[in-house]
Design a protein that fits this description.
- The structure is a single chain.
- By secondary structure, the protein is mostly helical.
- It has helices spanning about 5-30, 30-40, 50-60, 80-110, 115-120, 125-155, 165-185, 185-195, 200-205, 210-225, 230-265; strands at about 75, 165.
- The protein has 2 domains: about 1-185, no CATH class; about 190-270, no CATH class.
- The radius of gyration is 23 Å and the shape is flat.
- About 75% of the residues lie in helices and about 0% in strands.
- The model has no long low-confidence stretch (mean pLDDT about 85).
- Strands 1-2 form a two-stranded parallel sheet.
Length: about 270
């Protein structure tokens, strides 16, 4: 294909992706009651699933009745604030729902430029990227975001100050935490492609494991309340993802070595 042909193919990938985003954004926009009352504002109420699970866990440990985990008021302070947040939030939800299709369109554009062995080695990439994105989104929405909202909204420097949270600030915190976790959960796939490209090795990841643990602990401390249980809850999945990434990098090198040995077998050479 010529350069112009590549641009034409890319244009249609972009058009199809944009149409998909618009469709899901429109669906989210008209599902206003579910989108805001059940989904967006869920972590602001004490009957949210995460708070109920922590309440049951606390009762199992101390057998004491649960107190309200969240106690704040969400306010809109601008004339067009609710409308603009309705539109922007619908757009973000549309992107999240369309993500598997968006990545599939990107992959369809990139895949023809790969060598046959590269295509064979990246089989199932769309599926695994989509699954990890979904798991990260669920973890961010049900674990990381509620813990952060609960701490930030209930924190006070003086009892006389009432927390009245701006709608934009609340939604920004919720979406940032959720999308950040969704991206962090893509670590195994990122390591897989970097290992395939020879840019990272399991030895490098093992050498810097202590540094990675420190970074992970710092991230967990930033996104969670200053309470050890919450930090552990967020830290453990990220550490497991890092260890899984080391295993993936090792498996990629082992497969590459086996493939190279097969090619060198006729000449009597053996890859190390």
């Amino acid at each position: 294909m010529s350069f112009i042909d590549h641009l034409e193919a890319l244009r249609w990938h972009i058009i199809r992706s944009a149409i998909a985003v618009v469709v899901f954004t429109t669906i989210a926009f008209f599902a206003k009651d579910f989108l805001f009352h059940d989904l967006i504002l869920g972590p602001s109420r004490n009957d949210f699933w995460t708070y109920r699970m922590f309440c049951k866990l606390g009762q199992m440990v101390s057998a004491e009745p649960c107190s309200d985990m969240v106690n704040f008021i969400i306010q809109n302070r601008t004339m067009s604030g609710q409308l603009s947040m309705h539109i922007s939030t619908s757009f973000i939800v549309g992107i999240i729902l369309t993500f598997p299709y968006l990545f599939w369109e990107i992959w369809r554009f990139v895949k023809p430029g790969l060598y046959p062995h590269e295509r064979a080695g990246s089989r199932g990439a769309v599926f695994f990227v989509s699954v990890l994105f979904l798991l990260g989104t669920l973890f961010g929405y049900y674990i990381a975001a509620p813990l952060s909202i609960n701490f930030l909204a209930s924190y006070t420097v003086d009892a006389s100050i009432e927390n009245q949270i701006d709608l934009q600030s609340y939604i920004s915190t919720l979406t940032t935490m959720t999308l950040s976790c969704a991206l962090v959960f893509e670590l195994p796939m990122i390591v897989y492609f970097l290992a395939k490209a020879g840019l990272i090795t399991p030895e490098i990841m093992q050498m810097y494991r202590r540094h990675a643990i420190v970074v992970i602990l710092i991230i967990a401390a930033i996104v969670t309340p200053p309470e050890i249980t919450s930090q552990i809850i967020v830290t453990i999945p990220i550490l497991l993802l890092y260890e899984l990434s080391i295993y993936i990098a090792r498996a990629v090198r082992r497969n590459a070595t086996a493939s190279l040995n097969a090619k060198l077998k006729e000449t009597g050479g053996v890859a190390q």
